[in-house]
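Before we proceed, please read the two lines closing this message. Report back on whether the structure tokens fit the sequence:
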Amino acid sequence: MWWLDPGKEVLNVLFNRILAPYVENLDMNQVNYGIAQGQLKLRNLRLKRGALDKFRLPVDVLEGYLGTFTLSLYWMNLGSRPVEILIEDVYLLVVPSSQADIDPEEEERRAQAAKQERLESADLLHMRGQAEVSSADTSPQSQGLWASLTAKIINNVQVTVKNIHIRYEDKLSVPGHPFAAGITLASFAIRSVNECWEPAFIESTAGAIHKLSSLLSLAIYFDTDSPSMANLPPSEAKRKFMDMISLNDLDSSHQFILSPVSGEGKIVVNHKVDDKTPQFDVHLNFEEIGVALDDNQYRDIISLVDMYHFYIRQHQYRKFQPSDEDWSRNRARARLRFAGSAILDTVHERHRKWTWAYFAERRDDRNKYVELFERKLTNTLRDNEVTIVAELERKLTYEDIRFYRSIARSHLRKDIAQRKKLEEERVQRQPTRTWTTWLWGSGDTEVPNGDTTFSGQMTEEQRRQLYDILDYDEKSAIAASFETPQDALKLRIAAGLRRGSFALKSHPRGVASDVISTVFESFCAEFVQRPDNFEASVSLGGLSVFDGTTKNTLHPQIVQVKNSVTKYTKPGKTAESDEPFFYLKFESNPLDERADTALTARMRHMEIIYHRGYVEAIAKFLRPPESQLESVEALLNAASRTLEGLRKETRAGLEYALQSHKTIDLQVDMNAPVIVIPEDVTSFNGGHLIIDAGHIAVESTLADKDAIRELQAKKNQQFSEADYARLESLMYDKVMLKLEAAQFIMGTDLQACRDALTSKSGNHLHLLERTNIDLQVQNSIVPSALNVARFKVSGKLPTLHVNLSDTKYKTLMRLIDVTIPRLGEDSEKKDKPSPPYVSTESAVLPLSAGLFSPTGPEYNVDDKKSETEHASANRDDIFFEANDGTSENPELAQHIFDFDFAVDDLRASISRSGPDGSEKLLGYVTLQRFRIGLVLLKYHLTVDINLRALKMNIVQANQDPIQLISSDGANGGGEKDLLSVSYLRVQRNSPEFSTVYDDIEQSIDVRLSTFIFNAAPEPVISLYDFLMTYVRSNGDIGDY
């Protein structure tokens, strides 16, 4: 077969570039011979000390071995025999980098090797995109050939990995408490199977391809106070490493952070796809995943972070550290010279970067490197220039090299004439396509001069042989590419987890106990991709949280799902039919085109028991020692910068979606959690407060697309009254939010409070009676229509009824006292003088950005996003340019934000509690038809508050209630508001500030109507006596 020699050369290149940099005793002659024979078996390979330098961590490989590597290739029968890869018995022992006896040359060599590896990785990621830019070969033939090649590789390759153990030992971070952390894997295998998932090799890829993967015992451990395994004989070290690979979480030799995980994956590759059969169908199943963290592990992890922070600070000055001879002569002088050298080097380097000589040097380096890299891309680099490129890459930083390479690629793209000329010359030299042009999709893919692997021509006979071995039909591929419907499934990934847990533990070496633990059941996730659409969904069958901080508690389970589903849902099934506890689905470009995106969420009832005990225990568990606060603060600062970047990106995306009118179909149906706050968790009696937020429903009503097009046709025209009346209701995307049956219950018996939640009749235990709230959010689909508000929020509360009594008030004050956590920091801080303020930005050296993000900003000329954002910003500036100051400008009158909220009936009643727990009504106050409105314009703000009527009734014994205070509209008569308040605030830069508002920045207009007072001695005295008696009785609970 003609591809044998190129295939062997490809494998030789892969081994030379991928395996050789990490292995010390790799015999390339043995590798070449094994590849040529089709049977390669390597044993006892030793890993290099700097094998992990690419991760830029302060660690070294003390010992590392690859026990067995086997590669079986049947060159003459690749279409009928699988390619088998076996990796067995791999273990690494990693330790912190030594800070003594530093070899500067070795450090520089490792740093340059790590930089070159990062550059190679970046170029590999860029290569496919560069090929697509430089070539128009995106034909159905190439796409179909890629699909056939992918299917053949998936069908042919079988991988088995056994006995992997990577261990990190540290005796420096926590003096006196050495610890070890590691990752173990018993086995991982990918096998070819038939339709019944039985081991078999399918010779042809014409039908569906089935692959079965199995994972056995993947675990992460963190052993505190652990003995070291360094300096052991190789045979004994290998035996101990293999013995420490756990098969279950019952192994007491480890403190697991991730308990051993086992699972299986099923992959199906289909050639014929439709709306039910995806091209790639992946199913992942896991039995159980358990994550735990104990207090000793947390202590050592924080110390490790502190040690890493110290390393970052020390690394930049390590080259100035005095030698042992200097230390022995005069330690004081050595310290002084070290400090002076470190400071002067920083100062001199900062000053040097602001000199003209440095600017000229950087200019020359950039121009030279860009020129040479352009030649490298076009394969015109001379031998002596290769050395110059290597010297420049040794001198320049990784960020500079990436930036300069992007400039070179940009120059090549812009020079269209030159690229066409080069392409014509290449076609003349190679009249037929090489065997790799179809692989990269380009005829001018960047290929090193020394790689003869990528040379040679592909004849028609060779092309036919290649198509036969890949089972590829060119005509069928072209026909299939044009017949693919929009609802065809390209990819479907379904994952299922039967049970998962997370726990915080204490006293791992003694009687271990859980501080708090969370258990969830039947977790399912699914991702589906179509040509122009994708959707993702997650579901959760059950959730439980257990409290281990309080002895004799009657509520060990602090979170429980009502009628939780315990039946396991297999991946791929529709989660909606199984009624999970929680379900979330996101769609991008739904197939029915109802919106640009769609979000659906559902949740069933859940009960939460709250008390401050577990809050204080978690805070105590997570509180680091004061000596390590600086490192923790640096870690949090690095994380917060990452989160801040994500927040800005999210906000920018939302703002762009609003400006470009991206519609969202939102459907939310959630039963809000019921929160129970007991006064004493060891008793069902005593004060209890139950907060039930009721049922929350959110539903979006999107504007008709025909109305959008009609409005766009009138974009630059003045709307008439008829147009406004006809189109106003269609000019908004609307979101309706309903909150139903929200209530607060307070009593002295938990069961009675729970019964009151579902009581149909009135109950004296209600602190807040059942209430409903309706909110409507409207977003204009045409923001340029100036006589229509851009964003409106309106709401209505039919009734709000609050019941107060002396017993409820006392109980509420006691509950507030027992629910506020006492974290124990205030009292400690009071005894210590507060340190002077120091800016954390200057005092705390931030952690290496590589821990969360790239080491520095990477400027890339290829990225055109900044130009688009700049143009968008310019358009915004033009749109919001200051007006000409005339009052006729309609932009001044456009409502940017409208808010309107109304309450029909607002009522508060007060009662006296009797000895038997009953309550006697004393009086109530009612506010009728309360409304607040807010209008925000470009230069001014208006707030209106209205109250139609007020009445205050006092109950009389055996008589009708007397109206102590009332108004004209209290009994339904009159249309005049009792109270009306109008507030106006105008910005001074408004063009109408002087002409319309008479230079008045703020104005308040208050209108008050008639009050009616009725007084009767007995009820007034009774209410007065109750209030005064209650105030005097509060002397013994003044602390509340």
